[in-house]
Write a structure and sequence with these properties.
The chain has 184 residues and is an alpha+beta fold. It has helices spanning 17-28, 32-39, 49-63, 117-129, 138-147, 151-172; strands spanning 72-76, 87-96, 99-109. The protein has one domain: Zincin-like, CATH 3.30.2010.10. The structure holds zinc ion.
Length: 184
């Protein structure tokens, strides 16, 4: 494999330089895919929106019984993972019977349909935690870890997974033709 470029590491913004150096080494040695396959050998079976809703509701029922209702949990192929939105929680407010009601929806980037089980769970846990805590603060991550013990490691590995996918897609594609001078 060719060495990592800064663009390859775009999913890993915010991690320490020493960590990024280790990632560069893994990439340079062509071992990133092996690392991920060894740690996450199993794909999940949550293949459609119905199964995803059930998956999220089971977690909510277990850990966040008193959190607000969820109207919808779906895969969304419009989420732009390059903007780091792996999932979203939105509340659409509307008037119903003279009252303002918020319909809460979780959307999960569609690429997680075909991903290791732990990574899908990490995204779902993250968005569920936002039902209770809005910001990414200590309380928020404590709640994430309560629902998924290895939360931080899995989030990091998910970013490695995105890195690996992006590189695999690039290497599979023919080199784009050079068009003009990019600096022109
Ligand atoms: Zn968040």
């Amino acid at each position: 494999m060719s060495p990592a470029t800064p663009d390859d590491l775009r999913f890993l913004g915010g991690y320490p330089t020493s960590t990024l150096d280790q990632v560069r080494d893994l990439i340079a040695q062509g071992k990133l895919g092996d690392y991920l396959a060894r740690r996450y050998p199993e794909r999940h079976a949550v293949r459609n929106d119905g199964a995803l809703y059930d998956h999220a509701m089971a977690l909510k029922q277990r850990y966040l019984r008193n959190a607000p209702l969820l109207a919808k949990v779906v895969y969304d192929n419009r989420l732009q993972i390059d903007q780091r939105a792996l999932g979203t929680l939105t509340a659409v407010s509307r008037v119903q019977g003279g009252q303002l009601k918020a319909k809460r929806e979780i959307r999960v980037a569609a690429l997680f349909k075909d991903a290791p089980a732990e990574m899908l769970q990490m995204i779902v846990v993250h968005e569920l935690a936002h039902l209770k805590v809005r910001d990414h603060d200590k309380a928020f991550y404590a709640l994430c870890e309560h629902m998924l013990a290895d939360y931080h490691q899995i989030e990091f590995d998910t970013r490695l997974y995105l890195t690996w996918r992006a590189r695999a897609a690039l290497e599979a594609a023919p080199a784009p033709p050079a068009i003009g001078d990019p600096n022109a």
